[in-house]
Design goal:
- InterPro entries: FtsK/SpoIIIE/SftA, FtsK_dom, P-loop_NTPase.
- The protein folds into four domains: 90 residues, no CATH class; 249 residues, 3-Layer(aba) Sandwich (Rossmann fold); 200 residues, P-loop containing nucleotide triphosphate hydrolases (Rossmann fold, 3-Layer(aba) Sandwich); 253 residues, Rossmann fold (3-Layer(aba) Sandwich).
- The termini are far apart.
- Helix 1 runs antiparallel to helix 2, helix 2 runs antiparallel to helix 3 and helix 5 runs parallel beside helix 9.
- It contains 24 helices and 31 strands.
- With 951 residues, it is an alpha/beta fold.
- Bound molecules: adenosine-5'-triphosphate.
- Adenosine-5'-triphosphate binds next to helix 10.
Length: 951
């Protein structure tokens, strides 16, 4: 009994020691109890000798009690240790072979210890036996002396059945090697473990099943004379990692991986299988081996050595193999371990084949998530904007800067090479680092498509990117929108410069320091396919280039940054003719096969692989090239989840960005200017700020969502002529005008006379039913419009203050008839003055031989146009040709002042010469669903607008 107790106590002491690592506190308690128990045992023994009979019984009872207590404690501890062991070696590091599959660690995750078997102690739960390898230790395998092997066999739990096949020493060693390699391969990302085998005696040594890895260069063998070279190579590699990768910033790759969330270098495992002769190593080899043993682990270089001497050291785990799958592991204080069964041969070969295939596919793609910081919105943009857009070949994120230098970027690459994707990646990385108070985006895409629309709320996804203030898509025909953005930025530049001056500051960082409560985010304006804006030689190009020049030169100090992207920047004469402007774009980003964005002598883009980019912050100087891999960032899922996350954090009161879609027909009912007119809106908002009625004609092509508007005050010329043959568009303009005017008189107070003079307008006029006040609206047709005009012309002086709006659809369809009509039935008040004469001018007296001519319907129209506005009677008419309007006004040479505002549709600029101050007409090339609006009271140059839809 005492003998077996002593053995048991010994065993337990070791088991407790093992569990120490996992359950230190419990173990300490247990050990104290154990010491107490042993002391008590001693005392009991002594007492027993003295009082043999009675005490012997008592002693046995106490010992049984202690045994029981002790067994319970031990069971608890081993169970805890087993659980801890399972946690330490999750997935491929510890799973049984039935369910085993690779579970590659996430980047930056620490490599786990690897299970080889289980610690067996009698009457307790088996505890996983873990061996440290990747980033932790080297492994040295040696053979247990026979006596120890036999003792181990005895120590193994009595209940454990001997396996049917009891492997010998060599096979047990092979099993350890195979198990460690397979688990290491399964826990690392594919391709991240490179194995080298040194097996001069062709022992196999557990390496044979991994042969498929050789196809992908993940397994190499060195021949019998190759040990020296292998060790030298590993030492060189360690030196390189220390100098170039860790570079004094980190003490190990493990630390680097933890800090940066990436692992730039694969692990290298050298399996050295000697034949057991001590003298096999030369002194040089021995020295190199020692070096590697000492310094390799920090650099991801690991040795599994068998049959060769291995220097001792803290980073060497010793595994002594016996027979029958039994081993003793140094780190487990020599406790007896029963190896797990060997991994099935098929599992080894299939895993190796799959890993080789994955590795041959190239490095794991960069992930968009890797560009994002651990915590959002922590950066200040006072000094600039810095964010990565991809990773270099070593997996290091490549930061890209927009600041004083470089202030602006040019991005180029042929179609499909990933410009849009790169912009997404960059925007995501920036938006995650800088809050909307630090950064604002203005985005414009001149190519067809809706690539930037995702940043604005959509039907499927109501979220938006809170940094985005403006999104313009499908603007390929609306260069005016690009110009509007540049004008807006120009204004902002002026505002910032003025504010800086007021604080005696010159730059944004100084302004921010002086005015900490101010809202001075950096602005990034991205214009994709910007060459569309600069194509041609018209006024839009001239003004755009001038504005670009100003923004590029002065924007840098005021935190306004331009990012211009294009498929081909080579053809943009407007830019290349201005080298000083181009020089401001010192950040150059070239995608594969990009032309001209880098200087001629910098040809790196020609050989750039797919999904890579060159970032050059030094105007393309070859030595400043940084080549990087760009992650896919266009994926709606990846992007969507970031956007939603940022959206939920948006500051209170944050407004959705303005979305301008050149392909969409705007709606009057949602136009902010209309909403503020509509009944129920703030009364102060109605009838515009000035109290005069305002007709909204269409959406202005502008950064702000505003309406093109015509103020109908009591001043000469306050009429509108819509010109062109496109009935839908002309009706849309007149309908919007009518609806917006009606909205300003919800309780009556204005008269509407609507004349439908061509069938093409019938539907549009029908659509006004229920919108115009029924009791204040009269509809006329060709057969009674003369009466309308007669009555209106005759009654102008009697109109009083009530406004009267005449909406004449296709008026030119009846003017030939109007010219013949008369005499009028109503009271004549005199002769109609010629158009252009002042309304109050005296009528031309009739000569004695000339009876007073009866005014025709056309005369009445002219009088209304001329004299009406001062009596608050306004014509909003549609003429299908400018020539007809001119004729209706009196023909060539007659004055046109009665038409103070016009909106041209499919009319060429030259046809408008008579109605334009420069006498030559505006530069206007008609395009579908666009009009050119000119109000001589407010415009210097005509502005393009988009009619509101009326259906
Ligand atoms: N780094 C990348 N990784 C994976 N896929 C990419 C990457 N870059 C681009 N792509 C994919 O390639 C396709 C073209 O990319 P993208 O639209 O960004 O090109 P582009 O240069 O903007 O083309 P275009 O000028 O015709 O609009 C897209 O399907 C995109 O998802």
């Amino acid at each position: 009994m005492p003998d077996s107790r002593t053995t048991s106590v010994d065993q337990v002491r070791r088991a407790l020691s093992y569990a120490l690592g996992r359950a230190r506190g419990d173990l300490a308690d247990a050990e104290r109890e154990l010491d107490t128990a042993l002391a008590r045992l001693d005392r009991l023994g002594t007492v027993a000798d003295e009082v043999p009979v009675r005490a012997a019984r008592q002693r046995d009872a106490r010992l049984a009690e202690i045994d029981e207590l002790y067994a319970t404690k031990l069971a608890t501890l081993t169970r805890q240790a087993a659980e801890a062991g399972d946690r330490e070696a999750p997935g491929a590091a510890g799973d049984g072979w039935d369910e085993w599959k690779p579970t590659p660690a996430e980047r930056g995750q620490v490599a786990p210890e690897l299970r080889i078997g289980a610690v067996r102690i009698a009457r307790t739960t088996p505890v996983p036996a873990l061996v440290p390898l990747l980033d932790r230790a080297h492994v040295h395998l040696s053979t247990l002396p026979e006596a120890e092997d036999a003792a181990t066999a005895r120590q193994i739990a009595a209940g454990d059945a001997e396996p049917a096949h009891a492997p010998g020493y060599a096979e047990t060693g092979d099993r350890v090697v195979t198990t460690l390699l397979l688990r290491a391969l399964g826990t690392a990302p594919p391709g991240q473990v490179h194995i080298t085998g040194y097996d001069p005696e062709q022992l196999g040594g557990g390496l044979a099943g991994f042969a498929a890895l050789a196809n992908a260069g993940l397994l190499t063998f060195v021949g019998p004379g190759g040990l020296s070279g292998l060790l030298d190579g590993l030492v060189d590699h360690i030196r390189r990692i220390n100098e170039k990768v860790l570079a004094g910033a980190y003490t190990s790759l493990r630390e680097l991986a933890r800090a940066e969330g990436r692992r730039p270098e694969p692990w290298r495992i050298a399996v050295l299988l000697g034949a057991g002769r001590k003298d096999e190593l030369t002194p040089h080899e021995q020295a190199q081996l020692e070096r590697i043993a000492r310094t390799g682990v920090a650099c991801g270089v690991h040795l599994i050595v068998r049959g060769l001497p291995m220097p001792s050291g803290p980073a060497v785990e010793r595994v002594r193999t016996g027979t029958g799958g039994r081993v003793r592991v140094g780190g487990l204080r020599g406790l007896p371990v029963v190896l797990d069964p060997p991994p099935p041969a098929r599992l080894v070969t299939e895993t190796s084949t799959a890993l080789a295939r994955r590795a041959a596919e190239g490095p794991a793609p960069v992930r968009f998530a890797d560009l994002l910081p651990a915590e959002f919105w922590r950066e200040s943009s006072a000094e600039g904007l810095v964010a990565p857009v991809g990773e270099d070949a070593q997996g290091r994120p490549v930061p890209v800067t927009l600041a004083d230098y470089p202030p602006h970027a040019l991005i180029a690459g042929p179609s499909g090479t990933g410009k849009t994707n790169l912009i997404y990646a960059w925007m995501g990385a920036l938006a995650a680092r800088y809050s909307p108070g630090e950064l604002e985006f203005y985005l414009l895409d001149f190519k067809e498509g809706v690539s930037f629309a995702r940043f604005a709320p959509g039907r499927r996804d109501p979220s938006w990117l809170p940094h985005v203030r403006l999104v313009g898509v499908n603007v390929n025909t609306d260069r005016e929108f690009g110009l509007a953005l540049l004008r807006f930025l120009g204004e902002e530049l002026r505002r910032r410069a003025d504010a800086a001056k007021a604080f005696d500051a010159t730059k944004l960082p100084e302004l921010r320091a002086e005015d900490p409560a101010g809202h001075w985010p950096r602005i990034v304006a991205v214009i994709d396919e910007f060459q569309v804006l600069l194509n041609g030689r018209d006024a839009v190009v001239t003004e755009s280039v001038n504005l670009l020049d100003d923004l590029a030169r002065r924007g840098r100090s005021q935190g306004i940054h331009l990012v211009l992207a294009s498929q081909d920047v080579s053809g943009i004469e407007a830019l290349w003719g201005r080298p000083s402007l181009v020089a401001q774009f010192s950040l150059r980003i070239a995608l594969p096969k990009a032309r001209k964005v880098l200087p001629e002598q910098n040809t790196a883009a020609d050989t750039l692989p797919r999904h890579h980019a060159i970032v050059n912050p030094d105007s393309g100087a070859p030595e400043a090239n940084r080549i990087l891999r760009v992650p896919p960032a266009g994926d709606r899922e990846a992007w969507g989840s970031l956007q939603r996350e940022l959206w939920t954090r948006r500051p209170e009161g944050s407004l959705a960005p303005r979305l301008f879609d050149g392909d969409a027909i705007p709606r009057l009912e949602t136009a902010p200017d209309f909403v503020s007119l509509a009944p129920g809106a703030d009364p102060a908002g109605r009838r515009w700020a000035t109290g005069m009625p305002v007709a909204l004609l269409g959406e202005a092509i502008d950064v702000q969502a505003r309406s093109a508007r015509l103020a109908l005050n009591r001043a000469p010329g306050r009429n509108l002529a819509v010109l062109g043959t496109r009935a839908d568009e002309a009706c849309a303009v007149l309908n919007a005008a009518a609806r917006s005017l009606a909205a300003q008189y919800p309780d009556g107070g204005a008269r509407f006379s609507v004349a439908v003079l061509d069938a093409s307008a019938a539907l549009a006029v029908d659509a006004l039913h229920g919108i115009l006040p029924p009791d204040r609206t009269a509809v006329y047709h060709a057969d009674n419009v003369t009466a309308l005009l007669r009555a209106t012309a005759a009654g102008l002086e009697d109109e009083g203050d009530e406004p009267h709006f005449l909406l004449l659809y296709a008026v030119d369809a009846v003017t030939p008839r109007l010219a013949r009509s008369g005499p009028a039935p109503a009271q004549r008040r005199g002769i109609i003055p010629p158009v252009g004469a002042h309304a109050g001018a005296a009528p031309k007296p009739a000569g004695p031989d000339q009876p007073a001519a009866a005014p025709t319907g056309l005369d009445d129209l002219r009088r209304i146009l001329t004299a009406g506005p001062e009596h608050h009677t306004h014509v909003l008419g549609w003429w299908r040709q400018p020539g007809r309007l001119r004729d209706d006004l009196g023909g060539i040479g007659s004055r046109t002042d009665a038409i103070g505002a016009w909106l041209a549709l499919d009319v060429h600029g030259s046809e408008l010469s008579q109605f334009y101050p420069d006498g030559r007409g505006p530069a206007w090339y008609p395009r579908p669903w666009r009009g050119l609006f000119f109000d001589r009271a407010v415009h210097r140059v005509a502005e393009a607008i988009i009619p509101y839809g009326w259906t």
